[in-house]
Fold:
Amino acid sequence: MTSGVRQTDEKRQDMTGTEIQEIQDDGVAEVAILGKDAPLRLDSGAALGPIHVAYKTWGKLNADKSNVVLICHALTGDHYVRGVNPLTGKSGWWQNMVGPGCPIDTDRFFVICSNVLGSCCGTTGPAEVNPATGKPWGLDFPVITIRDMVKTQAMLLDHLGIDDIFAVIGGSMGGMQALQWSTLYPDRVKSVVAIAACWRHSAQNIAFHEVGRQAIMADPNWKGGRYYEESESPHAGLAVARMAAHITYMSESGLTSRFGRSLQDREALTFGFDADFQIESYLRHQGISFVDRFDANSYLYITRAMDYYDLSAEHNGILSEAFRGSRARFCILSFNSDWLYPTGESREIVRALNGVGARVSFADIDMDKGHDSFLLECPEMDEIVRGFLTAHAEQKGGRR
Structure:
C-alpha cells in the first residue's frame, strides 16, 4: 500500500455533511477499493477489478450534496491538489486555486481529486500488484483511455454516495477528463471548466508522446516493462521523455525571458557536452527529479490514453454531437502562448458547444508561460474561475 493513504472498503456507508471531516492538509489520502464484485469493462474490452483509487477531499459536503467539485489532474499530476504531498514533501500542485477563500473555495465547496487509473500514486496501474500473479502488472496491465479514467472516477463517486457534481474542473489532461465527463455522464454534471485542453490529440501531440515512449523503451533497463524486481529502472529513458515533454509545456518567449542563452555557472563555453547553458541544466534537473516520483510504465500508459482521446470518435467525427445531451454550463479557457493545445482548439470546442445550444463562456488569456500557465499564478484565470463558479452556485441556490 502506498504511504500516506488510508484504505476504505467498497461497502462504505453513504456520507452526509456531518460525517465529512473539515478540510485537512495533512497529506493523508484515502484509497477506495472498487469493482470487486463488478469489474470495470474498459474500452479495450478487458475487465479490470478490483481497482484501488487514491483520493483526497477538502471542505464539507452539504446536506443535499449539491456542492461537489471534482478536480481532474494532468498527465504527471496526482490527487495532492493542496497541502503537503507525503511522497515528495512539496506543496500541492494547485495550492493557489483550491482552498479557503480561493477561486475553488473549500469554505463553500466539497472538493474531491482522485489519482487517475493507470498512474503510480496509489491508484491501480502497471506498477501495482496484479492479484492474479502476485507480481507487478507491468505490460500485462490493460491499455486504458480517458473514458476509462472517467468511468473509474464515477465509480468512486458512487462509492461515496454522490450522484451529482456541481463542477468538474481540470487543466490539460484534466480538462480532457472534464469534457469527457460532460459527454459520458451528461445528467450528473452541472458545470464544466476545461483549461488549456483539447477535444482530441493532434498528430503533433501524438508525435511528441511517441518520442517520449521510445526514449523509455530504448533504455536497456526497461526490460520490456518488467524492471520492478530489478536493481535498475529505466531512469535515463524516463528522464529524456520528461525533458522532451517539458519543452512543450513552455513557450519560446517564456524560455527566452527566463534563460535566453545564459551560461550555467561558467563564464565561457567549455567546447564539450556538459550543460553549458542554463536551459540545458534546467531540463536535466527536470528529468532527474521526475524519475524519483513517477513510474516509466505509467508514463507509457497515460500518454497512450491521451493519444487515443477523441470526443468526436463515436459521433462520426462531428464534435458537436458529443455534447448534444449535456445540460452543463461550460467555461473554456486557453492561453495565447500555449502551442501544445493552442487557442484554436479551444475555439473549436466552443463552436461545437454553440452548435448544440450549450451555455458556454470562453476566454483566451494573455500569458507568456505556455501550456503550464494553468499551474502558475494567473490572476485573470483565478478571477474567471471564481466568477463562473460563484455565478452558477448562486443561480442554483448553492449558497451555504
Summary: Residues 379-395 form the longest helix (17 residues). Residues 205-304 form a domain with the Rna Polymerase Sigma Factor; Chain: A fold (CATH 1.10.1740.110).
